[in-house]
What does this fold into?
Amino acid sequence: MADTSLEIAEAAQQDPEAAIKIKSRGVQVYYADNHAIIDVDVDILDKTVTAFIGPSGCGKSTFLRCLNRMNDTIDVARVEGTITLDGEDIYDPAVDPVQLRAKVGMVFQKPNPFPKSIYDNVAYGPKIHGLARNRAELDEIVERALRRGAIWDEVKDRLHAPGTGLSGGQQQRLCIARAIATEPEVLLMDEPCSALDPIATAQVEDLIDELRQNYSVVIVTHSMQQAARVSQKTAFFHLGNLVEYGDTEQIFTNPRDSRTESYITGRIG
Amino acid sequence: MTDISAGVPPTATTEPKTSLVASDARTRRRNAAEKRFRAYGMVAIGVGLFFLIVLAVSIVRSGLPAFTETVLSVEFTVSEEQFEDAESQILKTAVYEAIFVNALNEQLQAKNLDVAFDAAAIGRLVGKPGATIRTFFRENGDQLGQPVNFDLTAASRVDGYINGRVTRDTLVDSRFLQGSDLDLVDALIEAGIVKERFNWNFLTGTDSGVDNPGGAGIGASVIGSFFMMLVVLVLSLPIGVAASIYLEEFAPKNRFTDLIEVNISNLAAVPSIVFGILGLAVFIQFMHLPQSAPLVGGLVLTLMTLPTIIISTRASLKAVPPSIRDAALGVGASKMQAVFHHVLPLAAPGILTGTIIGLAQALGETAPLLLIGMVGYVAREYPEAFLSGFVEPNSAMPAQIYTWASRADAGFYEKAWGGIIVLLIFLLAMNIIAVLLRRRFERRW
It folds into this structure.
């Protein structure tokens, strides 16, 4: 643990412009009696792609879901510790999780477009948050989101076709477009490419790289190559512990913890 | 993987190689078992279909006579002199009856059918035709002197004779119809005067007394059932759907909600007569709502339908993939927005189907109506206005069928079967609507 905090302090020193977006301290997550996340401290930087890697069941997705309080929907889940977004505690009783989720968007493992038209999929978030005053503004928001989701050219002629009729890769990019249509500040992605083929994966990875210009992106991935390709920061989770957190390059070339080394060289996991 | 292959005994490799073309004993046994199972399945379906066909044929055969009525169709002329002469008499209808008997006689003789009969026999066949004829000419004076066709409804036993229900043997001691009358009926059939025609009164009419099966109609009880279903729909759909949404999407999972869940499942299995006695105690004895009223029937059936609707609604809410809820929550929808914008529309076809099936079940339910006085009530009148339809005593289709089936006169027997046909048509229509709605609203994801 001492190592990790040292690492964070170093990171902040090395790159003073990269502001800390999300800060977690002593986060514990329990599923009923199961202690799923143990004492996680991590600082997620703005305009940076942070990858969470680790073997299955290590708690990386659980921790990701803490960051926009999606764990609230699970009755038996209990979160302790503090997580702040721009210095505000997101687990403060005064915080409305709905407002939080508008700021912290999420893309899921399996593409899950609503069984509605492509347009309605993207327009839904802006509509419920009242981001558009009229139809023309909404059209504009939808187009911008679809363009930034790198899917505009493929769907611009069939905006009113059902979103579920798209291919898997297109659906996932549609879900990303839907997530960024509400202008979030942080984008959480839970294994966004696990259901996609290599070509679609490459498209989504390019997209993630572009999204870094505007957002802080946190991505959970099983693929170490993917983490190495898209992220600047990597956190390695093991059995609910955050084992190591640092620059991606350093984690993959010169891991400090023996467990990290074993995982990235394929001996555990 | 490696563990499993290591566990295979080494002897397996020493066995001679088997051919793909020759099946071994184990494969043959397996194939035989599969064939047997298919045969069982086909036999089961065959038995089911056989009984379905037997049921359908017997219902149609026994029920169709209820939809026809027998009429004596006689054409004759009443001149103005005859009319004035009759109106000047004391027993006016007797004169008209004599005119009718003469006309009938002439027509029979014209066809060389010589049967002796008197006004009393005519009375037994068609009641008192004189009044009908007099009323017609008093209201339509311009028809005097012209041939007019009268269709006089025959007594239900004449109907029964034509449908084979009444024979000369069964009439031995009857004071309603005598054996000699049947000779007259035979002659009238030969002369083409006795005709069968569609009995609109059965569909639109009201229930008759215990001695007049011919005049009984199911119309009033259809209206009674309609008002009951209206009550059931208006109460059970919103209550049931709201309860299921709360239980499925919002309620915390604890012992209390578990208890509620178990009890809802149990309620669905409670015999319907229990709901009837509950309705009697609560709605009639405690709340003093009117007896035999569709409102009370509807309330009782609502209690009975609620568990069905709640169970099917919860099942269709459960069938909506959780990824849809995550997606909605992920873009910042509130729990309620996620449910109402995304989950409910996807569950709607299932909810509608469940509701219509529940309504259909309620429509055919008789036992609870026994205890609140709808069975046995003689629905002689239509409700006066829309709102009074809820509180005026009425019967309902299954209750009406039960009432007819328990009456002594055999004429009511075929009315009961006819009522079953009407009820089945309504049920079939509701099921078809359920299927169409499901097709219309079903969305894929």
Summary: The CA atoms of residues 243 and 310 of chain B lie 7 Å apart.
